[in-house]
TrEMBL record:
It is an enzyme of class 3 (hydrolase). It is found in: Cytoplasm. The gene is hisE. This is Phosphoribosyl-ATP pyrophosphatase. Keywords: Amino-acid biosynthesis, ATP-binding, Cytoplasm, Histidine biosynthesis, Hydrolase, Nucleotide-binding. It catalyses: 1-(5-phospho-beta-D-ribosyl)-ATP + H2O = 1-(5-phospho-beta-D-ribosyl)-5'-AMP + diphosphate + H(+).
Amino acid sequence: MTHPTSARGPLDDLYATILARKDADPASSWTAQLLAKGPEKCAEKFGEEAIEAIIEAIKDDKAALTSEAADVLYHLLVMLAARDVTLTDVLDELTRRQSQSGVAEKASR
Ligand SMILES: N=c1c2ncn([C@@H]3O[C@H](COP(=O)(O)OP(=O)(O)OP(=O)(O)O)[C@@H](O)[C@H]3O)c2ncn1[C@@H]1O[C@H](COP(=O)(O)O)[C@@H](O)[C@H]1O
């Protein structure tokens, strides 16, 4: 499925960079090093970053939450790449849900 908002954005560019790091020398890049440790380690790092974001959200520190949210998005993409799930797969799932909720809205009118 082609995503309707297919204009490339920073997340697409970051995901493409992360994918390219799957074949890179681990010594050359933090991302390549993390991917070389395997999908379980990538998932663990995602969990750690999510918890750090939760802490900043509870503290209501907007600057720190913004920074942690960027870490969460980066580590989400690394975890997806480690398991060969594409960003397009995830966006398509969101689009499918939006169109389903549109059907539900129309049905309730
Ligand atoms: N967006 C990011 C990004 N966000 C966070 N990080 C790294 O993720 C790491 C995780 O932070 P931690 O505080 O947990 O790091 P740490 O304590 O050193 O790690 P551990 O000891 O816990 O394993 C840090 O080293 C950050 O530099 C990122 N590393 C890379 N990118 C982007 O990924 C792309 C590829 O970068 P390279 O990894 O340099 O190839 C580039 O576009 C980068 O901008």
